[in-house]
Amino acid sequence: MAASSRLGHLVKFSIDVQKSIDFYTEVLGMKVSDRAGDIVAFLRCGSGGDHHVLGLAKSSQSGLHHLGFEVRDIDEMEIGAQTLVAAGFKDAFGPGRHLQGSNYFHYIRDPWNSLVEYYWEMDFIPEGAEWEAMNFNVDSELRPIWASGPAAPDFTLNFEQA
């Protein structure tokens, strides 16, 4: 199984993405790296670092979409994903490469129907960098740069909904 080097980010569902952005940026000092309208936003720590350590995705209630675990290389990413699938966990999406963050990814469903992402090579934004957050088109630009196939139909579902 892949030996993740760290928990790199989490993406949570939010009822109000803009209100969540306001809280995390104004109160906690985070910065928006990229977003897609009021559907999804990617935030980084105010002192610089990975493209995102927190993602916010619109939903009718709060919940966890996924935890992203950084691995050392693409082989470790795929060995980890294949090991989880062989153990009976559901393959959800990947391998592929995201546009936002530029990282390679592979998602697997956990026992609670949230997702675990193994990822490698996330963009790094140094403190003070002149980074302009993009506002991506939800329908066309949130798709990955490439992927082995489409995401499972339930990829964006919030399983924590009542």
The helix count comes to 2
Going across the biggest sheet, name each strand in turn. 11-2-3-5-1-6-9-8-7-12
What low-confidence regions span 5 or more consecutive residues with pLDDT below 50?
none
Percent helix, as a range, is: 10-25%
What is the CATH class?
Answer: Alpha Beta
The radius of gyration computed from the alpha-carbon positions, rounded to a whole number of angstroms, is: 15 Å
Q: Any idea how many domains?
A: 1
Question: Strand-residue fraction?
Answer: 35-45%
Shape: globular
Helices and strands, in N-to-C order?
A: EHEEEEEHEEEEEE
Superfamily (CATH H level) name: 2,3-Dihydroxybiphenyl 1,2-Dioxygenase, domain 1
- What is the total tally of β strands? 12
Sheet with the most strands, sense and barrel status: 10 strands, mixed
CATH architecture level-2 label: Roll
Could you say what the CATH topology is called? 2,3-Dihydroxybiphenyl 1,2-Dioxygenase, domain 1
Distance between the termini: 33 Å
> Please, what is the average pLDDT?
95
Helix and strand content put the structural class at mainly beta
How would you sum up this structure, described in words?
This protein is mostly beta strands and 162 residues long. The protein has one domain: 2,3-Dihydroxybiphenyl 1,2-Dioxygenase, domain 1. The protein is 15% helix and 38% strand. The protein has helices spanning 17-27, 74-86; strands at 6-14, 31-36, 40-44, 48-50, 54-58, 63-70, 91-97, 104-109, 115-120, 124-126, 134-135, 146-147. The strands form 2 sheets. Strands 11-2-3-5-1-6-9-8-7-12 form a 10-stranded mixed β-sheet, with helices on one face. A hairpin with a 6-residue loop joins strand 7 (91-97) and strand 8. The protein starts with 5 loop residues before the first strand and ends in a 15-residue tail after the last strand.
